């Protein structure tokens, strides 16, 4: 399993269906580009890569989480969790349009 998929799985297990106040107490203030329905948090590393975590809210509760990987501030990969009949994680490579893999 991809490292970012593992990270997203952990975030889903710990934070799905939490309230905004709980997310605020754990992660702190969201970035300026956030609004009332989606909050963004950047994770910077000592490298050319950094990650952005997005929490999507519906009625003050987290309903989805997404991780986007950046290389030199350009999006290169997004990892999503799709909840439904068959819950699954999808990794979408933004370097080659239309390419993704299911895990």
Structure description:
By secondary structure, the protein is α+β, with helices and mostly antiparallel strands. It has one domain. Helices cover 20% and strands 45% of the residues. The protein is built from two helices and six strands; from the N terminus they run H-H-E-E-E-E-E-E. It has helices at 3-15, 20-27, and strands at 38-44, 49-58, 61-71, 74-82, 88-93, 100-102. Strands 1-2-3-4-5-6 form a six-stranded antiparallel sheet, covered by helices on one side. Strand 1 and strand 2 form a beta hairpin. The longest helix is centred in the first third of the chain and has 13 residues, at 3-15. It starts with a helix and ends with a strand. The mean pLDDT is 82.
Topology, pairings included?
Elements lengths: L2 H13 L4 H8 L10 E7 L4 E10 L2 E11 L2 E9 L5 E6 L6 E3 L1
Antiparallel strand pairs: 1-2, 2-3, 3-4, 4-5, 5-6
What is the number of helical segments per DSSP (H or I, 4+ residues)? 2
User: Please, what is the average pLDDT?
Assistant: 82
Order of helices and strands: HHEEEEEE
Task: Name the beta content range.
Answer: 35-45%
Task: Give unreliable regions as ranges.
Answer: none
| Domain tally | 1
How helical, in percent, are the residues? 10-25%
Query: Mind telling me the C-alpha Rg?
Result: 14 Å
């Amino acid at each position: 399993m991809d490292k970012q998929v593992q990270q997203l799985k952990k975030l889903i297990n710990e934070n799905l269906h939490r309230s905004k106040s709980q997310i605020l107490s754990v992660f702190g203030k969201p970035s300026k580009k956030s609004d009332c329905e989606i909050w963004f948090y950047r994770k910077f590393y000592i490298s050319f890569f950094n990650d952005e975590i997005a929490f999507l809210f519906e009625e003050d509760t987290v309903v989805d989480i997404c991780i986007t990987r950046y290389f030199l501030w350009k999006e290169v990969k997004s990892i999503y969790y799709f909840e439904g009949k068959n819950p699954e994680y999808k990794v979408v490579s933004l370097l080659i349009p239309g390419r993704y893999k299911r895990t």
